[in-house]
Amino acid sequence: MLGWTALAIVLIDLLVGSLFSRSHQARTLSGLTRYFEFGRSAEGTVNLAVGMTDATTDPEYIDFLSGSLTEEAVAPLPREPRHRDSRLIAIYGMSFSAHVARALEQAGPDVTVRSLVAASAPPSHSYARYEFDRHRHEADVAVLSILAGTVPYTLTMTGMTWGVEQPFPYMYPRYFVADGKLGSVSPLITGPADLRAARQDRTRWEQFVEQVRRHDAYYSALAFRQSPADHSVLMRLLRRALAQHHVRKIKQSIHDQSGFDSESETARVLRRMVSQFAQSAREDGVMPIVLLLHDQGYDDHLFALLEPLLESEQIPYVSTHTICPATDTSNFVPDGHFTADASRLIAAEIPKRIDEHSAEGLTAAR
Prior knowledge:
Shape: globular
Helix content: 40-55%
Number of helices: 15
Number of strands: 10
Strand order of the largest sheet: 2-1-3-9-10
Distance between the termini: 90 Å
């Protein structure tokens, strides 16, 4: 009896897999196929979703790849204001900040926005893109956006480790603090060309995986490495559950209902990163602004973590906890992002902060 049951399970697994598994040729996925793909390894997902050209790559993953640290990623963006009387503001962050950037630019012709964002980007990625983008534009304001929900991913170097539901194939440095200074380990793969080349060079790919294993706090061989389990729907679903538990356990060691652990390595690195951002921007003659975005479940926790630093170093900031509180569900749409009205309210605070600190600067100069 047990034998027949086991055989039936195997047959069902094979049948569902054959009907709803992703293929190399598929550029878009149906709802059911996407559901049964959950739990495929990061390697397996990227191998299927990212082709050797954009034409053979899932459109969604083309967008993910645009989050790379390459000249190609920043080339289409404005380098100077559209008009003589317009101000260029450079914004670095994730989809939340992209919505704010859009609202900011739509508010009037006196603002041109240079927006470098990537899906679910953690602070490390946003900071890395800021550093990469320095001296490539004429912005007089730089906005570093930090989403509370991605702060736990600060000690990572690729979205392929913590992106359990959807591995993000962009890479960025792994930052650390040593002797009070911010240091980093640069990824061996930085963009789509590197990624595609490494897929054709096993030695190069294994070197990258070893680097991620050593330095990325969320690396798990079970979730990352491709294996025969990728071909089984049941095994993929089991792997998904285990990977979710792995990520959740790490996140809970950094953040709980009372807030972020201010003594954690994540907090130390984030504070040093914000401080370095402000210092380097000022050295370049650029006004730094830190945008603190609180998504649902994070109340004012990010503000509570960074407010002492922001005040002591007089770093201009905008925090959403007083504009559109995370405790008020009417501020959010079903996918978790802020509503358009909330994004407009957040965007309206940025020019105010610029004017306030510009006025303070003039007063100090007198």
